Each structure stands twice: as structure tokens, then as C-alpha cells.
Amino acid sequence: MKLEKVLVSGSGKLFYVKGLDADYHTQFGMVKKDDLRKAASGDSVKTNTGKELFVLSPGFSDLYRKIRRGPQIVPLKDIAAIIAATGIGRESVVVDAGSGSGALACFLANIVKEVYTYEIRPDFFAIALQNVKELGLGNVKVKNKDAYAGFDEKNVDLVTLDLAEPWKAVGAAADCLNVGGFLASYSPTTPQVTDFVSAVSKEPRLMSLKTIEIIEREWEANDRKVRPKSAAIGHSGFLSFARKISKSE
Ligand SMILES: C[S@@+](CC[C@H](N)C(=O)[O-])C[C@H]1O[C@@H](n2cnc3c(N)ncnc32)[C@H](O)[C@@H]1O
């Protein structure tokens, strides 16, 4: 069902209204479907308990939050680090593997020219395809193919890997990257990082750049109660970056 409206409470809590055929229930009370239908972005609606909720039209970040989840997705803090480290933009072409839920592929597609994403499992391929469709992204091609067998694309600006054995795709990434292009591998564990960086060091066309872990600490800021939130996101994954520095193997 289509995401129609976003409701925001005074404390910043978001409610996602899918379809407008029924009243919408929140922890602050119920909003009538007729009020929801009439409300435009920037208006506010009242619940039956008198609480005011602000109405927004869904933007990309809202639609993205509601995508279907299959395997674990790359968190936004790590996607942001990939974008910042590689400088990809509206002219960039990206190859991504494995697609999983297509989260990383879709987020990148929202800022680059084209994304080609590879997924070996038919069930996850279907989820990624559905998410691409629901986000209305016309520049993502999801391929039900084995990334370890190589990529079809050439001269791409970035290859992103979120695979159990990313070292097996290092040669394929070097084949399809532009000189100057980046390889970014996301892995939850240190043995994966060790084997990936080792494979990069043996690939003469690539130069290892850095491995980082992004730690995000959210704070609550409420009058004089300004402190880190008690519940924090723990470890997600490590990001290892490499760059193509030469054409010759
Ligand atoms: C952790 S998920 C990727 C999540 C994705 N980055 C996202 O943000 O939604 C890893 C995916 O890689 C896929 N995969 C594993 N081996 C693969 C291969 N050889 N070729 C393509 N996909 C593969 C798995 O089926 C799984 O869906």
C-alpha cells in the first residue's frame, strides 16, 4: 500500500500513513481519514484526544525507512561514509553486490546516475526489485547473478561490496572500475577485513586506502536534559576502501 502522509508529533515521533481508506491510530489517539485526506503538507491534524500532529508529504528518507527488509541492510551512517570517502555524485556509475534488500543500492541510486546491483538469491533479488520499484528509482538495474563470477559493467566509478567473502570479488571489482574509481567493502567481522585487505594488496591495479568503523552516538536534547541516549546502536560493520590506480595487471 502506498505511503501517503507522514505525521510528526511535537516530540519528533514519526507516523507513516499508508492508504487513506481508514482512520489512523497513534499512541496520541486517532486521526479521522477525512481529515487525513484533506490535509496538505504543512497543515496539522488533531487526534480524537486533541493532540496536534503535523502533516508532511513523504520524501525519499521516509519512503526509504519503509522499504522491505530481507537480510541486514547497511546502516545510514555507513552509507554516508561511503558517499563522503568516494565523492560519488550525479554523474557516477556504481556496481553493488550483494543487493540483499537493495537498501545501499537504492540510497546510492538517489544521488548517482546509475546503479547495477548483483544478488545471487532469487528471494532477496525479488525483495530488492520490489524496493527499487516502490521507491520509484528508474536508474537501478537489479541482476540475479553471482558477483564472484564477475561484473558485466566497465569503467564504473564505485564498486560496493557487502558479501560474506568480499575478497573473492576483488579481481572482478578491479576489472570493472575506472582508473581513479573506488572500491568500498562493508563487513561485520575482522577476519573478513583481514582477507579483503590482503586480497587488495595482491591486486596490482588497486591500492588499499583505509579501514574505518563509524560510531554514531545519538543524544537527547530536551531543555537542560542534554545527554547521550541510554540505548545506543552497537557495532554494525567495518568499511574498507581501496582505489584503482593502474590499468595494468
Ligand atoms: C548483507 S546482504 C546485503 C545487504 C545490502 N547491502 C543492503 O544494504 O540491503 C548480503 C547479500 O549478498 C548476497 N550474496 C552472497 N553471495 C553473493 C554472490 N556471490 N553474488 C551476489 N550476491 C551474493 C546474499 O544473498 C545477501 O543477500
For this entry, give a set of tags.
7 helices; Rossmann fold; 249 residues; seven-stranded mixed sheet; 2 domains; Vcp-like ATPase, Chain A, domain 2; four-stranded antiparallel sheet; alpha/beta
Strand order of the largest sheet: 9-8-7-10-11-15-12
Report the bound ligands by name, code or SMILES: S-adenosylmethionine
Q: Tell me about the biggest sheet? A: 7 strands, mixed
User: Into how many domains do the coordinates divide?
Assistant: 2
Uncertain regions spanning at least 5 consecutive residues:
none
Give the structural class. Answer: alpha/beta
Radius of gyration, Cα only, in angstroms?
21 Å
Strand composition percent = 25-35%
Please identify, by name, the CATH architecture of the largest domain: 3-Layer(aba) Sandwich
CATH class of the largest domain: Alpha Beta
Average of pLDDT: 96
What is the CATH H-level superfamily of the largest domain? Vaccinia Virus protein VP39
Rounded to the nearest angstrom, the distance between the terminal CA atoms is 50 Å
CATH topology of the largest domain: Rossmann fold
Helix-strand string: EEEEHEEHHEHEHEEHEHEEEE
Helix content: 10-25%
